[in-house]
Amino acid sequence: MKNIYLIIFIVIFAFIVGYIFGQTYRKTNLNPLISNTPLKTYPLKKYSIQNLKKTKFFGKQIQIKEELNSTDSFTSYQYFSYDDSKRVSGLINIPKQVGEYPIAILLRGYVDKEIYTSGIGTQRVGEFLAQNGYITIAPDFLGYGKSDKPSKDGLEERFQTYTTTLELLASLNSVNSALIEKGISDITANPDNVVIWGHSNGGHIALAALVISGKNYPTVLWAPVSKPFPYSILYYTDQYTDRGKYLRKLLADFETDYDIEKYNPINYLKSIKAPIQIHQGTMDEDVPVTWSNELNSKLNKFQISVDYFVYENADHNLVPDGWSRAVSEMFKFYNDKVRK
Q1: Which of 36, 80, 196, 211 is the least crowded, having the fewest Cβ atoms under 10 Å away?
Q2: Which of 72, 90, 83 is nearest to 140 (CA)?
Q3: Residue 169 CA, distance from chain mean position
Q4: How confident is the model at residue 295 (pLDDT cuts 50, 70, 90)?
């Protein structure tokens, strides 16, 4: 008799559980307001210009590491800063003469990772400024030098150059403690006197940093990549082994999920609060002179202070007929802005 009651109890219990499960399943699948499909995420949304403008960049402690080179007037060291939790290496030049110095942030253009070493693309300008009274800091960017790896997403890796630069700028208050930690007590940095130099794609990154931060960092641009994104990268697809096939697919997928205009710093130039100096060669095959002509016109339209220098017969690196004057004009521009 007990076995019969147990069997009846099990049957009734199974029926009740099955009924509840069935009703839940039915309601979930028939109710148009409830979906079993996972909600789609948009991880790159945080990189829109407006969202980056709202982001707080607090900076972290800069660390000065091994000596790389030494001259009569300055010493070069490897340093590390951070982009969120990722470590970014770079090169810092410290003048040897006792005193307080302004800081110059140097942003390079594209360099193949296979040949990259710290300082490529910024070395000559960095040495000139260090010899003439500036502490210079040139980030390698994620994936270069001894930096951590960037995002596996090619477009996010590009956007990370913006955040790396903005985090570095927010970390400059720690330069003096880094100098002391390194045993350098008679040299100090002035984090309130900061200038930016950008060449080629580094010029694009510099413009993005000015737009997003809204800070008054006097900035010099040499042959800046200033066409709107994504044309600013599609222009160079012939240089890739696959002729840009991967990049075009990446951009097509991106435009499916995001409004690409919201990721274009050139759409927000009116946010710039810093004076700018532009140098451009007429024989530049990487950045056509028409790009800098257009950038100059747009900056003037927004009443942003801009000085524009064009050099006949000069290439992407402002040689042979531009480098010396460009360096001289850059130096006068910086000194006028930070040493009043």
Answers
A1: 36
A2: 90
A3: 11
A4: very high
Q: Are 298 and 270 in contact (CB under 8 A)?
A: no
DSSP 37-104: SPPPP-GGGGGSHHHHHH--------EEEEEEEE-SSEEEEEEEEEETTEEEEEEEEEESSSEEEEEE
Query: Mean pLDDT in the chain?
Result: 91
Is the pLDDT at 10 greater than 70, yes or no?
Answer: no
How do the domains of the chain map onto residue ranges? 1-38, 43-338
* Two tokens, residue 218: 């006097």
- From the list 210, 222, 195, 159, the residue with the least C-alpha distance to 338 is 195
The two structure tokens encoding residue 147: 């930096």
Q: Give the pairing of strands 99-107 and 135-139.
A: parallel
**Cα–Cα distance for residue pair 317/323, rounded to 1 Å:** 7
Tokens of 165: 């630069």
Nearest to 221 by CA among 136, 124, 307, 286: 307
Domain covering 43-338 assigned CATH 3.40.50.1820 in the classification = yes
Per-residue pLDDT tens digits for 255-285: 999 999 999 999 999 999 999 999 999 999 9
* Whole-number Å distance between alpha carbons of 22 and 196: 65
Q: List pLDDT tens digits, range 148-168.
A: 999 999 999 999 999 999 999
What does the buried/exposed string (b/e) look like for 16-29 if buried means 16 or more CB atoms within 10 Å of the residue's CB?
Answer: eeeeeeeeeeeeee
